[in-house]
Amino acid sequence: MARRVRIAILGAGTAGLTALKEAQRHTEDVLLINDGPYGTTCARVGCMPSKALIEVAHAFARRDWLAGAGVGGTTGLEVDLARVMAHVRVLRDRFTAGAIRLAQSLGERSIHGRPRFLDAQTLEVNGERIHADVVIIATGTRPIVPEAWRAVGERLVTSDDVFEMVSPGRRVGVVGLGPIGVELGQAFAQLGCEVHAFTQGSTVAALSDPAVNASLLEVLGRQMSITTEATVAVHTGHDGVVLDDGNQPQTVDWVLASLGRRPNIDGLCLETLGIELDERGMPAFDPATLRLRDLPIYIAGDVSELRPLMHEAADEGRIAAYHALHPEAECLARRVPLGIVFTEPGAGRVGVSYRDLPASGVVVGAGDFSRQARALMAGRNAGLLHLYVNGADGRVIGAELATPDAEHLLHLLAWSIQQGLTVDGMLQMPFYHPTVEEGLRGALQAARRALSERREQPDLPLCRAAIDWALG
Ligand SMILES: Cc1cc2nc3c(=O)[nH]c(=O)nc-3n(C[C@H](O)[C@H](O)[C@H](O)COP(=O)(O)OP(=O)(O)OC[C@H]3O[C@@H](n4cnc5c(N)ncnc54)[C@H](O)[C@@H]3O)c2cc1C
User: Fold this and answer.
1) Which of 5, 283, 294, 381 has a beta carbon 3.0–4.6 Å from 376's, enabling a disulfide?
2) Cis? peptide before 434, omega within 30° of 0
3) How far, in Å, is the centroid of ligand 1 from the Cα of 142?
4) What lines the ligand 1 site, CB under 6 Å?
5) Dist. CA 351 → ligand 1 center (Å)
6) pTM value?
7) CA distance 391 to 393
């Protein structure tokens, strides 16, 4: 006799828990099934511990600038890596607590175990059969590790284990310089480690604009050795792990493999569903509703591989639960794409990336942050912002950047792009002086020059067009 539920959610990560909360607005008849640890990837081994480490690293890296600015004693500061890692874990435990409590609060509506589909509406977990009207797959992803590298043993770590390291050795190898590799590589370099980083492509931090990428590499290259377009072999040497790119082998104490992630779909038995799977076993689904063909099954979060970021996983959880319970509802639009990398300078992309720009009709406005006044005062003057503008109507459609306070500039840009603002519309916004945001204004002004626009009036809205922003 199968247990019957209205909706079963597979995975208690960000997507699964957000789907749970959305579903609970309509029904209490929800079952959460999680295989693996609770607490979410973001809080447990992702966004949160990485940023906790990065905060310490960025703060410590300021000591030379402080010394130059007249503050004594800073060059005597020392890093105790074991205590830094312990500090990161204390914060990490605070962040995971809420997610763990939420899953526990479900009582019998939460099952720990690996589910498999018997058919589209029947699951089996821990020997129990469950009939669900709808199922949401939100099982996340896991780091990719080449099989041959496993021979290195504990000296090879991924983001899943790095925050568990009690006292990391100071010679560090990083293979793969996407957002995770570049953030953690720089953090360990700033904390005084000798970091040797390798990446296959020519760009890092998920940037695609060559000039912006070069401006970030220029800063990172002062802190660690970086080899791009490298194919690296990893093996055990007599004094550590050897990273060999065919040129100069490097021996390090441990290696962070940050080569990307793969969806957790193994063991779900998706082949029983009778729908088309690709060569990796991934099912086809509607990217708008996240529904698998016409089955009562939805897919949400990183496992979908659509937009593997925390806020997107949450949105996909919401979308999947909403459509699962309202299959005929009008589809919900996605927010403007936004990706932030927490290096110093920060990096990121918003809206249309350089690699996706149309071949013609786009105007680029550049902002050089190596001379930006407020950044200069803080000793953080570095980087470049490229703004992509539709030449036909002046609308800002995207940007890539490596700048101080990138996380804030990227939000301003994302909100403006989603509102459909033009270069002129953005220039009519207030820019306080002296701020890093003035660097964004410089890029907007450069874009306007490139658009060959001459304005008769100053950068202020006309009275008749101004919105009455004050209450009353
Ligand atoms: C080092 C690192 C740093 C990051 N930094 C950021 C950042 O700064 N900003 C940002 O937006 N994003 C960041 N991310 C990405 C972010 O963490 C993910 O986008 C987000 O956690 C995805 O949530 P999810 O619910 O899809 O997956 P998860 O949180 O991984 O949830 C999946 C759940 O499913 C469970 N599970 C696995 N297999 C099964 C199965 N077969 N059956 C049932 N349950 C299963 C897992 O145990 C887990 O509980 C980072 C990721 C990493 C690794």
Assistant:
1) 381
2) yes
3) 8
4) 10-16, 33-37, 40-42, 45-47, 50, 114-115, 138-140, 159, 180, 264, 267-268, 301-303, 308-311, 313
5) 23
6) 0.97
7) 6
